[in-house]
Design goal:
This protein is mainly alpha-helical. The protein contains 14 helices and 6 strands. Helices cover 50% and strands 7% of the residues. The protein has a 3-stranded parallel beta sheet. Strands 2-3-4 form a 3-stranded parallel beta sheet. Helix 9 links the parallel strand 5 and strand 6. The chain starts with a helix and ends with a helix.
């Protein structure tokens, strides 16, 4: 979970940019929540699309705004996990968050699974969530499609899929509503889940009215500032698909831990085309356009302006510059990550402090929820 303006509008989610200037004296403090799964070292797409935006939010937020960034271990369990690998991945993801610049003194940084209030609220929300809404969730439908493609039967066998995957969006809603978050940065694939979160907040508010609405309807966050907004980074080997940690081809993605030599080799082998000159055309030239997108994102530049600089150059020149730009972007966070990941006591202390702050914050919400539903 990494919690496009056009898409948000199309499905009815209000959006807001925390980078917009505003008079803090004329508005209420904002509560921003976002989470990321601890499944492997983040790749360039994660960094440019979600993690770097967390840093922008931290820098641009007002002093009275609350920021919560969570490693959502319970969500990872919807798919089979090796326990030892998951334990290491949780610790590494915390190190990554700190390495990129999230300050645990300014923001609440914590492991979701260290705060049982999430699962308690998830159960309560499950009891007011219509089955029909969950069946329309794209996560569930995509797993059904995968099941159908894997087997020879024409009918999908839902018994092969776990209930956690089916109710995953409700846990995501609980993650957000436990802190009465007002703003949620989400990725393109999670926008439908944010709409469900707003629906469940509204259902609870209407069902348990007194004395006033319990939950705000969280807004989709756009981090578009004066700089160019982050673009979706695609696979280096299949530029029709997004860069993904789950791809079996390690050459398809650039990891935060990749050395300069690894980065150069992966960019050099990236799929492009045989057309002379460089132009930005995502439909006809997805590979070339993906490299231009990466280069523009690394420098917070407009991709069409970047493309004009290369219109009379070749792919070799472009790939060399992209590799240099990516290395320049990642070398600082990479070095900091390698330093922090071995400081196990420091990481444990940060996690413990973050969990305590998160529990105190969410207990206020759960206490009121229990009272309203009759369980106080």
């Amino acid at each position: 979970m990494t919690y496009l303006t056009g898409i948000a509008s199309a499905i009815g989610i209000s959006h807001f940019s925390l980078c917009q200037s505003s008079d803090a004296s004329t508005r209420s403090p904002r509560v921003v929540f976002s989470g990321i799964q601890p499944t492997g070292i983040p790749h360039l797409g994660n960094y440019l699309g979600a993690l770097s935006n967390w840093v922008k939010l931290q820098k641009s937020s007002a002093p009275e705004d609350e920021l919560l960034f969570s490693i959502v271990g319970w969500h990872a369990l919807t798919l089979p996990q090796d326990p030892a690998a998951l334990l290491a991945a949780r610790r590494d993801m915390l190190a990554v968050i700190l390495a990129i610049g999230i300050d645990p003194n300014r923001s609440i940084v914590f492991h979701q699974d260290h705060n049982p209030n999430h699962t308690e609220l998830c159960w309560i929300l499950n009891c007011i969530t219509p089955m029909g809404k969950l069946r329309r969730m794209t996560t569930w439908k995509s797993r059904l499609a995968a099941s159908r493609n894997a087997g020879s039967e024409s009918e999908v066998d839902e018994s092969l899929l776990n209930a956690g995957l089916f109710t995953y969006p409700v846990l995501q809603a609980a993650d957000v509503l436990a802190y009465r978050a007002t703003h949620v940065p989400v990725g393109e694939d999670q926008q439908q889940h944010l709409e469900l979160t707003r629906d469940l907040a509204d259902i609870f508010n209407r069902t348990f009215k007194a004395p006033s609405p319990m939950f705000p309807l969280p807004l989709y966050v756009s981090t578009k500032c004066a700089q160019a907004p982050s673009k979706r980074i695609l696979s280096l080997k299949d530029p029709t698909s997004k860069m993904s940690k789950s791809s079996p081809d390690i050459q398809s993605r650039i990891l935060l831990t990749d050395t300069a030599a690894h980065i150069k080799a992966k960019i050099r082998a990236a799929v492009t085309d045989s057309i002379q000159g460089i132009t930005y055309d995502p439909v006809s030239r997805p590979g070339t356009s993906n490299l231009l997108t990466i280069l523009a994102a690394c420098s917070d530049s407009d991709v069409t302006e970047v493309a004009r600089l290369y219109e009379n150059k070749g792919h070799g020149h472009l790939k060399s510059d992209v590799a240099d730009a990516v290395e320049e972007l990642l070398k600082g966070p990479r070095a900091e990550f390698e330093r922090i990941r071995h400081e196990t006591q420091y990481l444990a202390d940060v996690a413990a402090r973050g969990a305590e702050r998160a529990r105190l914050r969410s207990e206020e919400t759960l206490g009121e929820v229990r009272k309203r539903i009759g369980l106080a």
